[in-house]
Task: structure prediction
Amino acid sequence: MATNCKNDAPGMKGCRSRDENGELRLKRSDTKIKTIEKQYNIDLGVRGDMLWGNYKDLTGVKSLHELITKK
Result:
């Protein structure tokens, strides 16, 4: 799957650009869970219209990396 993201981080799945400090840009809190589930081919067991920020608050997950490595 090719992405058209400017400054896309090499080796990262999906559009994950880096900020001015060279760190990966954080996933927006208003991203819907169904988008994350589709992008990473996982089932998080919650409604697809739940927001990433709400999911993090509910589960205590701090980052996408933590989420993916736990799944």
User: Anything to note?
Assistant: Residues 33-40 form the longest helix (8 residues). The chain has a mean pLDDT of 82. DSSP finds three helices and no strands in the chain. The two ends are 22 Å apart (CA to CA).
